Amino acid sequence: MHILYLRTYLLRSGNLVESQKMYINQCRRLHLLRNQAYVNGEWVKAKSNLVFAVHNPADDSVVAEVPDMDSKDAQNALLTASNAFQTWKDTTAKERSRILRRWFDLCEKNTDNLAEVITAESGKPLAEAKGEVAYGNSFLEWFADSARHINGEIIPSPWPNKQILLTRNPLGVVSVITPWNFPFAMITRKVGALMAAGCTCVIKPSEDTPLSALAAVELAHQAGVPKGVVNVVTTSRKNAPTVGKVMCEDEYVRCISFTGSTTVGKILYGLAAKGIKRVALELGGNAPFIVFPSADIDHAVDQAMLAKFRNNGQACIGANRFLIHEIVFDDFVKKFKARIEKKCVLGPGTKEGVTCGPLINNEQAKKVSGLVDDAVAKGAKVLSGGKFAKNLGNKFYESTLLVDVNQDMQIFKEEVFGPVATCIKMKSEEEALKMANSTRSGLAAYIFTKDLGQAFRMSKNLEFGMVAINDGILSAAEPAFGGVKESGIGREGSLHGAVEYTDLKYTLMSGLDK
Ligand code: NAP
Fold first, then answer.
1. Rounded distance, CA 188 to CA 493, Å?
2. Residue 180 pLDDT more than 80?
3. Whose CA is closest to atom 43 on ligand 1?
């Protein structure tokens, strides 16, 4: 039932339970709020009828309740996606391009509506949520174009009467498992690519942020994405392992496309191995942000603000370790501190002027404060922040700057995923490289230098999938996004992002001389 009719019907009937009242009230505000899962082009409940609550991390209020689906629901959705694949794989690239373009147009038109949902469940400031919509949507636009460029090859044959054809064929059903930090963009980055390639999917968003996924597929529905091509299974954290197991092992699944922590990525990689399924893994990072004496320090500080405090530090490519040359250390730190204290305004994402929202949940808040406490206990000095902003709520952590950090502290080794910048003094290029590479992660790295040779040397020797020289932001639809080492396998964005969802088929055409 369309949401407007549902609202009118329920209000007129006077037959409302509390959760329905809450949903109706939220819908007055959040136009793209949907409280059911989406399978085979329909809004559905869990077979068990169970639901779980989605909270606004700014004040812990309930935004909506959504179906708490289990492994049986997931199996059903995968079967649906498999059936849809039988026809979707044969659509022309032009047709898929058109559908993606319509989805893109609708998302663009609904930027504000999507952003409101993102802010309501993730807590990020509205301006950042709008930025996420623009970023996420750029993948739909990019893959609408790329769909028509997933080409094969004709290779000169060693035989006079034969021809060698290599064609790119869609893999089939893709299980898409996404995190809460970019709840819209992490979906479009995958689904745009796999749809362009001719695949279908089942999406499992995080318990914290299923509503952005549902809002996105509402617009996919309106855009005419055929039923069964995109499905969303909402599930509580409790059910994630069993649902995840089905999504990795089910016979219909040909690929697991996961963005999230390295810990969970390893579990899913193991499950996928049993069926020799393709994996695309975008995992955690531990990005170094390296500043050399030749750098423009004011510019480096500006970029540090973006690389660290975007999404309140909850970004996989967020700068985690600031390795600053001793010659410019004091200058950098002084300016960084001043900028943090001036620019980081903590509060609920809906409040005008706020630049940093809450952390997503209690577990994340505990982790961030624990890392700071461990560092301080081992000798780190707090120059700014370093504690919860209790007056705002239990998940607001002050934007923090630490110095005297060393490699023995947990905060150096782990991805902080919060608003904490740690500055470490270094003396040389060699030392910076050694420290930067002393991690199992290898997602993004940032270097600030005006020495061209140094920039090339560093880029070559850093064991990271992405290196930004003199910039703090590197994400876009056009480049290939992804990590090395324990940061993942595969690439998203660029044409490579779509090719990930294809198999290369070799066809030998023989007897051509007869
Ligand atoms: P997470 O705990 O690994 O969760 C990611 C997704 O996996 C969520 O949907 C989660 O559901 C689900 N999940 C958890 N355990 C599972 C299991 N056993 N089987 C199947 N699914 C399971 O990561 P997160 O805390 O949401 O996100 C933060 C991490 O993501 C960080 O490490 C960050 O660096 C990484 N990340 C990487 C990229 C990249 O492009 N490389 C981009 C964004 C984020 P629940 O949330 O409901 O538990």
1. 10
2. yes
3. 316
Write down how long the chain is.
514
CA 282–ligand 1 middle distance (angstroms): 9
Distance 441 CA to ligand 1 centre (A): 15
Active site residue 282: yes
pLDDT band at 29 (very low <50, low <70, confident <90, very high): confident
Tokens standing for residue 385: 């922040």
Q: 287-438+444-476 belongs to which homologous superfamily?
A: Aldehyde Dehydrogenase; Chain A, domain 2 (3.40.309.10)
Do the Cβ atoms of 332 and 291 come closer than 8 Å? yes
Over residues 304-317, mean pLDDT: 98
Catalytic residue chosen out of the listed positions 65, 282, 398, 500: 282
Mean pLDDT for the stretch of residues 419-426 = 98
What is the architecture of the domain spanning 36-282?
3-Layer(aba) Sandwich (3.40)
Task: Give residue limits of the domains in the chain.
Answer: 1-30, 36-282, 287-438+444-476
> Best of 202, 206, 269 to mutate for ligand 1, by most ligand atoms within 8 A of CB?
206
pLDDT in tens, 329-359: 999 999 999 999 999 999 999 999 999 999 9
Which residue, 198, 97, 177, is CA-closest to 143? 97
443 in contact with ligand 1, CB cutoff 6 A: yes
3-state secondary structure of 284: coil
